[in-house]
Write a structure and sequence with these properties.
heterodimer; A: about 160 residues; Arc Repressor Mutant, subunit A; 2 domains; four-stranded mixed sheet; B: four-stranded parallel sheet; globular; binds iron/sulfur cluster
Chain lengths: ~160, ~450
């Protein structure tokens, strides 16, 4: 069941679109429920489909197309590091390698304690701040030197 | 650790980013910078929509999102007396590698974008608009929502704006991790709640856009230039730049420079000057190559770049494109094969998959460059790469196919000897690492100053 809070947030999104275009709220609805559950199970996606009056398959299509949706459970903190060229030229790949070693995981893997999942990211539109990373999609961290990475991992444990 | 303080040093010519310090983004701050004066002028003087469009045409403002299409002309394509809804859409889905300028507008000067969009809506008789914001910059999306609330509360947005008969609603929409949604028709599909797969054009959005209605889409920076044009006049804007290349342009300078960041300069400014603003080459190393307009554009050799001016026409003459204004600078320690490999991977990863030449071709481009980079390349691979690029370019629904093909061709053409060295010697010409990151600590230390 969608929580009352989630419904309230989705309802606010719905006010942005014409009454016969409720499907436009699916991107935000999925982001809202993902924040609540950490990932999108098919049950949760079906709830969203029902709430927005759209076919379930149409919701799955959206959830699988956009890469910030989690289609399986993640660690407590999903860390997405940008390694695209502009960032790589300013230490993006080095930061990623440092994290891999520190956490003992490779891309798309979760640490044994379930605290961290490491993901390779594409350009976040913040290349001037490289190395950059995202924590759980929404918190961007800039200029991530090894010391700052250490501090961040300590904080998120 | 302090944030990168130099970010606010946008250069002496700035108009869009002028006087910003990171905290003065609110409505009252914007008003103290002559904010909303252009909108008031239009409504007070009863400027006609066609007058507004004429002024924008006079300014020679060209789209800042990548293609550089004349904005006034685009606006004049919108049907005047269309019965029913029309839409205005802003493209803040900035995801072209190297581009990070729209983000500074959104977070440090959101009202200049809102005012620009209101004026555009007035000029085209549009009642509803959306701003599509890159999902990765969530706090900037939140801030934009806040700025919208401020504008609504002050009567700049909503029903009967400033007591006139003109009404315009503007909403924020967020992406969630798909580069292709920066392509305008993919973006429209995404707002409609679907996968972001580009539409075949024609029909163009001006006749069949969002929800099938006439729609105009412009980039964030394009809209952000509009208040100045109305306030100071199209001519004044034009005169900042040069003929056919009006105004200032935000350049996002990244890569091996001492001070990566955004710099707003007059179009026609020499690249050498821009590089100087960005602190010159990091560690004083030699410049090897520059991608002048975002990762989709052909790379230019460093020495050639040093004599080029930064405007649409000059860069086109040099064989590349100004694109989104993302200037990616690479020094002598950069392995060009590795750089090309990373970009090829990006297009492979981000292809939406609906056209075969792009879906399959981007995968092949990546795999071939990957094997060259890893010492498994074959003599015939370079011809194969160029042949593949030909098979992709111009044969796809959207320009992502071209964006994947063009850079590969330019990398091979300009740095052929590096590719050949990789193939012949099974190792890199510039030594281990490949990205010039040995002095990263140095740049981070500078960021923390
Ligand atoms: C693959 C691809 C990605 C694009 N990404 C962006 C983008 O992130 N931001 C943008 O404004 N335009 C982007 N564009 C260009 C848009 O399709 C469109 O031309 C632009 O938003 C029009 O606005 P303008 O005329 O103000 O430049 C992209 C185009 C393609 C083909
Ligand atoms: S060119 Fe590529 S990204 Fe564009 S529509 Fe075709 S498959 Fe999709
Ligand atoms: S390349 Fe990393 S944020 Fe743009």
């Amino acid at each position: 069941m969608l929580s009352p809070q989630a419904k309230q947030k989705i309802d606010r999104e719905l006010t942005k679109y014409p009454a016969d275009q409720k499907q436009s709220a699916v991107m935000s609805a999925l982001a809202i429920v993902q924040d609540e559950y950490g990932w999108l199970s098919s049950e949760v996606m079906d709830e969203v489909a029902q709430y927005l009056g759209m076919p379930q398959i149409a919701v799955y299509e959206v959830a699988t197309f956009y890469n910030m949706y989690n289609l399986k459970p993640m660690g407590k903190s999903k860390i997405t590091v940008c390694t695209n060229l502009p960032c790589a030229l300013s230490g993006g790949v080095d930061a990623a390698e440092y994290l891999k070693k520190k956490l003992g995981v490779d891309w798309r893997e979760t640490t044994a304690d379930g605290n961290f999942t490491l993901v390779e990211g594409e350009c976040m539109g913040a290349c001037g701040d490289a190395p950059v990373l995202l924590v759980n999609n929404k918190r961007m961290c800039s200029f991530m030197s090894n010391e700052k990475l250490d501090k961040l991992i300590e904080e998120l444990k | 650790m302090a944030e990168f303080a130099k970010t606010f040093d946008y250069g002496p010519d700035a108009i869009i980013l002028k006087g910003l310090d990171g905290s003065n983004w609110r409505l009252k701050d914007y008003e103290s910078r002559a904010g909303y004066a252009a909108l008031k002028k239009i409504l007070r003087d009863g400027l006609k929509p066609e007058d507004v469009i004429a002024e924008v045409k006079k300014s020679a403002l060209r789209g800042r999102g990548g293609a550089g299409f004349p904005t006034g002309l685009k606006w004049s394509f919108m049907p005047r007396s269309f019965p029913g809804a029309k839409y205005l859409v802003c493209n803040s889905d900035e995801g072209e590698p190297g581009t990070f300028k729209d983000r500074d507008i959104l977070r440090y000067n959101p009202h200049v974008l809102i005012e620009g969009m209101i004026i555009a809506a007035y000029a085209m008789g549009i009642a509803v608009g959306y701003n599509y914001i890159h999902g990765e910059i969530w706090s900037d999306y939140d801030r934009f929502e806040e700025a919208l609330e401020e504008a609504r509360a002050a009567g700049y947005l909503g029903e009967k704006i400033l007591g006139t008969d003109f009404s315009f609603q503007l909403h924020a929409f967020h992406g969630f991790g798909a580069y292709i949604c920066g392509e305008e028709t993919a973006l429209l599909e995404s707002i409609e709640g679907k996968k972001g797969q580009p539409r075949f054009k024609p029909p163009f959005p001006a006749s069949f856009g969002l929800y099938g209605k006439p729609t105009t889409i412009n980039n964030t920076e394009t809209f952000a230039a509009v208040p100045y044009i109305i306030r100071e006049g199209g001519e004044a804007f034009l005169n900042l730049g040069k003929p056919n290349n009006g105004g200032t342009k935000l350049f996002s300078v990244s890569g091996n420079v001492a001070r990566p960041g955004n710099y707003e300069v007059k179009l026609g400014t020499p690249f050498a000057k821009l590089l100087e603003m960005a602190g010159g080459m990091r560690g004083g190393r030699k410049i090897k190559g520059v991608i002048p307009g975002g990762s989709s554009m052909p790379v230019i050799k460093g020495d050639v770049m040093m004599s080029i001016d930064m405007d649409y026409d000059s860069i086109a003459k040099a064989g590349s494109m100004l694109g989104s204004g993302a200037v990616i600078v690479m020094d002598e320690d950069t392995c060009m094969v590795k750089a090309a490999e990373r970009l090829a991977y990006f297009y492979f990863e981000e292809s939406c998959g609906q056209c075969t030449p792009c879906r399959e071709g981007t995968g092949w481009l990546y795999r071939i460059i990957h094997r060259i980079e890893h010492g498994l390349g074959r003599q015939e691979d370079l011809d194969l790469l160029l042949n593949l690029a030909d098979q992709i370019q111009g044969r796809t629904i959207c320009a992502l196919g071209d964006a994947a093909a063009m850079p590969v061709r330019a990398f091979v053409k300009n740095y052929r000897e590096e590719f050949e060295y990789h193939i012949a010697h099974k190792r890199c010409m510039v030594g281990p690492g490949g990205y010039s990151t040995r002095h990263v600590a140095e740049s981070l230390a500078m960021a923390a100053e």
